[in-house]
Every structure is written in structure tokens, then in C-alpha cells.
Amino acid sequence: MSTRIYPAFKSGSPKLRVFLPDFWMKLVKPSHNLLPNQVQFVVSSQMTKLDVKQYLEKIYNLPVVHVSTYNQMGKTKTLPNTYVTKENDEKIAFVTLHKDHTFVFPEIHGSTDIYDEQTNTMKQTKELYAQKTNINISKQGVPTWFSH
Amino acid sequence: MAFKLSVANEATKKSLISQCRRISSYFQPSESEYESKPVYPPILDLSYEARKERKIEEIAQNITKLGTVEEKLIELNAPKYYGWWALNLYERVISYNALPFTQFATRTCLVNELPSIYNDVDEIALKSLPNIKDKLNDLLLQEFEYVSPRTNRKGETKSEATESDRRSRNFIPLLNRLLVNQLSQHNEDLQTTEVDYEPRLEAFWSLGGIEPGKVLKNIREKNEKFYKGKADDPIDRPIQYYGSPRLSLRHNKPLPQLLDRNSGLSVEGAVPSWNLDPRVMGYKYKYCRAVNVPGFWPGTETQHGYMSYLSRGYLKRRDEELSMSDHQDALHVQAILHSFAWTLSQACYLGFGPYTELTYPLSTQTIITDGQNYSFSAYQLNTCALYNKHSGDANPHRNVCFSTDEMKLYDIIEDGQVKGFNDDVLKSLIKFYLIKPTEPQVNMRPYLSPELYIGNVSDTERRQKTEKNFKFLVSNRPNHILKDEIYQWEKIYKIDHDTRPMEKKIRFFETGDPAPGMKRLDDFNPKYVPKHLQNPPKRSRRGRLPVQPSIKL
Fold first, then answer.
1. Residue A119 touches partner B, C-beta closer than 8 Å
2. Predicted local distance difference test score (pLDDT) of residue A24
């Protein structure tokens, strides 16, 4: 639970009354459509469902109805001619609050319109280029400076 | 010039025509092949949505066309050799805030009071109340005061939920016996009801309007040519329900209608809309067979449900784990799901089903009790086909559930006395037994052939095959041959990243074969039949049969 080094207790010495477990929770954007009263977290893999519930109830005063967790394997990646590597595994927790207690994950980076615009313009130029090269397929290899 | 050909029978006509056709076209076929006006085939809408709809309607037609109950139920399973990837709903596993989803999944509108049909039997109920009250008093004392719970050697009892279930398992049959005995004088049909103790109730249906999962969405987004703007189009999800009431009563005549199928609540009732994948509720998917079993087998004469009792011990555990605020909703959900499943599986035995819409309504009565608390509900099934767009506005009918809140029959039992007896609860209980089943005026089995069940079919091979297949499918036995599995290393080193291109492609996902999930039920090599038993027997080279027949030919 905790990676801190606590002093060994010998009878007679004062008890250490502060206990800091390595528990953390990260609110994330839901990976799929959830109910309005459900929230998705990435939590420390050492936490159990009960730990997640008590973390929210005791620290943030959130009445939690149900928690379900699962361990998600990290995505595998490869670059050409190199080994296959894997990202770290994560524990995902879906927390169900009371049915009237809704939550919507906020837009942090604004809309994704700029990104979509860039990809669209890239696509359009590619299509235009393909059209142009296709028109005079019989004149393959000839630069487009010549009339077509 | 065309001559009208008059001959003895079709065979001679055909042989004559075939002979004549070789020579000339002088003899024309008879006029039955020609119409006075040209008859064109229907003009089909070739858009993607229309084609998809026609495909599903064809599936529904294929099932509706079959003549016997068993064949229809087998055909539900036909497209999937390994079973349907279906949402599994259990009677006693109800997630938090399950009422909106349950109402959508069963297309039910909920009313918080019993229907008017129970007002007609009010007087008779009042008359018989005092007599029954005395006997019920004794029964309550017997079951809840004098019978002590079973303890182990240390003196511990099982959990509260288990103890509550145990007590209701003992109490409910005794309560039923008491009421049937006392009320048979007012309602003779009670004497001809059949009783089932903890029967197996399973129901399967296909629910449309659910949003697709991530995998399907990704595939659709990549394939922009066909699926532009349609990545989020809803899909059908199969649902399989498993439950078992504590006690159910059946009769050979159905219950009367609770309300008109074509007006009022059946057409205008409020049903919440829903489009999320049910897995957000905490329910799980599993590979399972499509099984529709109402607690008895096809061919039973008493095939109309009259009433059933459900137990509610699971609520004690659920209230601790989830919130107490959901207690009443859980009872409504249990009643709705059980009633829908029971009426749907009864409808399947009458020729209807998840792909064949009802032509008249079916009703049922349910009591959820643990001896002290009672919830009464009456349900009418107006529509059972909820596939594709029929789960939404395109379906004019809705099912109606009249369900009361829970009420206490008595407050407490102490000092050998039942205190705080509530007469209204007992009156409702009695009224449930006074409803008389009626012979219906409609054709009860419009989609079944006169044989009804496969046991009445005279063709031996078809009868034996169908019966064997039906019994195997409905037994829920696991497959002998497991489905092909992709190992994790193959997923990483062969599928996700092609790190082994030079290896032989012999695995099922490399050979280009169709996916294992697409295997149909009849897609297997038939059993080997030795040559001398094959029909017809193969002749030897000398023209003689290998085994000489005993009868002189």
C-alpha cells in the first residue's frame, strides 16, 4: 500500500499516527458513452473497489453507490525494424454516483475543429493531386508543367 | 395458333410438351401461365437502410413460416453454432437504477396501481376474508414464530438473505394451498390449475436501438465509403433472461385481457428512451443459446400462466451494497422482467416469438413476497417483437405493467400473536385468486400449422431430428468443440504487429476462412454412415448388390 519508509515501532516509543498510502486517482474522459451519473478514473493498481469508494467518500464527500474496476493492459507499440514494446498497465475504475448526481467531463482543449480542419485540407490536397495525375495517366512520368 | 391441350394428368402433359418442344412450338402451354394484364415484381428501394431492413424481415419471415413450435425455437439458434453473444439478465441480479433500462428493454409502461379488473371481484373477496384471515394467522405463526432457523454446530445461521429465501420457500406453497382450498368454491377453475415449484423460466429476445460497441464503431469509421455519417447507427442486441419463481400456477385457458391492446395505455403509455450499451449498468454478455422455456415443455395442455410467486431475499444483500433509495425500483424491475419473460415464452409456445409479433394480448399476475412484505403486479404483453426499429416509435404497441408498492401484511409477531394485520393486503391476495380464465374469441395460433408440435408430425426423420436438436439446444449444455481462440502472443506478434511474415499461415484467422462466430448451426460434417447402410446401397462392379435382398425382386 505504501512505499514510504516508516520507522520500526518499538514498544514505549510514540506511535506514528499519520499513514500515507500510495493511492492516487485520475479523472479521465470516458472511453465510451456512460450514464450521466457515472465517472471514469484511472487509479493506482494497488487500490481495491472499497479503497476507491472510501477515497471519494472520505476525502471528497461524494456518496458513491457502486464501483467496478478492471486492469487494462497497456497498448503495444512498434517502430519498423525494432522490438515490440508495451506501455504500462492501468487500473480503470467506473464509479456510479447517486442517480440525480450527474457529471459531464469538461472540454479542456476546446473543440477539435482545428485538428479536423488540418486533416481535411490534407485529404483534399491529396485527392486533388490524385485527380490531376489520373487525368493523363497515358502521359505518366511527364511533369504537370506541360499543359495538364 | 395456340391449341388448348387436354390430357389425362400433369405427367402426360409434361411428357407430351417436352416431346413437342423438340419438334415445334405448335403446342403452347395452357393459359394458366399467362395473365390478361402484366404482373410486375414490386419495385424495391435499393438504399442501404431499406436493404438492411429487408434482410432482417426475411429472417423474421423464415421463422414465422415454420409450422411447429420446436422448429421455430431451433431456427432462433440457427445462425450461431457457438451461441449468441447475448446480454444475460438474472432475476435476482438487478443493478442500481435499472428501471429505465428494463422498461425500454421490455417496452413496458409502468402504472402504480392494479387494473380495474380486480374491482369486479371486490365483494366476493370481502366475504371470504374473515375465514381466510384466521387460517392465515395460524400459518404465519407456524412459519415465522414456531419454526426456528437452521443453525450449524456453532449456532450460526446463514445470511439474512438466505434465511429470508428459506422461509419464503416454505411459506409460499403453504399460502397457495390455503388460498386455493378456501377460494375454490368461488372460482372453480382453481381446481384445474397445475402448480410448479421453482420452475425453470428462460426467455430470449432481440432488442433494437442499442448503440454499437467500440470495435464496430472503429470498423465503420474506417470504412467511410459505406458508413459515412452512419458510424453511430444503432444495432440489435440479443437478451437472455434466466429466472425461477418460487411457485407458479398454470391453466389451460388464458387470463382475460386487462386493457384494450389498440388504445389507451397500450398505445400511448410512456416508455423511457435508451440507447447506451447495457454493460454500463454492470450486466455482462456471454455466449449462450436462445432458450424460451416458460417452466414447462411444448405440448403441455395447461400452457397459459395464471399466477406466480417470486421471492425477494436478494434485496437484503442489495440494500447493503447499493443504496436503500433504489429498493422499490428493484421490486418493479423484478416484476416487469419476470412477467415479460413468462408471457414471451408462453407466446413462443403459441407460435409467436421475438421475431413474430402478437395478434392478441397475453396477461399474467405476479406476487413478490417474503411472508411479511407483498408487492402485487399484473402485466399485459401487447408486443413481443422488439428487433430493429420495433423497440422505438415504429412500434405502436407497448406492454403495460400494473405494479403496486410493497405493503406489509403484518407489523410484527411477538408473544405468539400476529400484530398489525393489514386487511387490504389479504384482500388483494384473494382477488388475485378470484380472476377467472376465459376461453378466447380469437384464433390463438395463427402462425402454427395444424400439427402444432413436432410430436404430431408424421415424417419420422424430420420429427426425430427436430426433437433431438430441440432438446439439446434447450438443455444449455456446453459445446463439446470449443470455439477457436486467438492466443495473446498471436494477437501481439501476428495480428497487431506483423513480426512473423515468413511463417506458414495455418491458423484460422490467417487462412481467410470466415470468422468462427459466423458458423451456422448446421455447418458441420455429418456423422459417418457406413457404406452398406448408405441409402441407396452402392452396387458392386458386377452390377450385383453387395448384400442380396431377402425378398425376391
1. no
2. 95
